[in-house]
Specification:
The protein is an all-alpha fold and about 150 residues long. The protein has six helices and no strands. Helix 3 packs antiparallel against helix 6, helix 4 crosses helix 6 and helix 5 packs antiparallel against helix 6.
Length: about 150
């Protein structure tokens, strides 16, 4: 009698676990089909790259803006000024918080990564534009000589 009960419990648990794995697989397949995250970054989409930066740093650009009290379009001077003020205000030797000081450093790093990525993309576009211009100039025939 006890073997029958154990068998029923094993079958019931197996069914529940199987359904859970199936549901998780369906969700993972739907996410992959939607093309989020790594797939978008691999395609070179700006959102995918920025999402990758967010995952890498653990901080979104919006969060970095809030921590440093700047706008996304802030110039480097304002960013540096706010960074230095917040870093010095949270100096542990002055009774500040190491945690907050670390957040300030990570926020500045996030901005720097964002700017580096934007510069990299603009240089790639410029290079592509130069290559396109060079190809159109090469394809034109030289003027006839007199």
């Amino acid at each position: 009698m006890s073997a029958r009960i154990i068998a029923q419990v094993v079958v019931s648990v197996g069914t529940v676990v199987g359904r859970a794995f199936f549901a998780a697989y369906k969700q993972a397949a739907a996410n992959a089909a939607a093309g989020g995250g790594v797939a978008a970054a691999a395609r070179g989409g700006k959102e995918g790259v920025m999402d990758a930066l967010t995952r890498k740093t653990g901080m979104s650009l919006e969060e970095a803006c809030q921590i440093l009290n700047v706008q996304k379009e802030a110039d480097l001077a304002q960013l540096t000024k706010n960074y230095e003020h917040l870093f010095n205000a949270n100096e542990t030797s002055k009774g500040g918080s190491f945690y907050l000081q670390s957040k300030v450093v990570r926020a500045k790093e996030r901005f720097e990564m964002e700017r580096a990525e934007e510069l990299k993309q603009s240089q790639a576009k410029e290079q592509e534009r130069n290559n396109t211009t060079a190809n159109t100039n090469d394809s034109q025939s030289p003027p006839p000589s007199a």
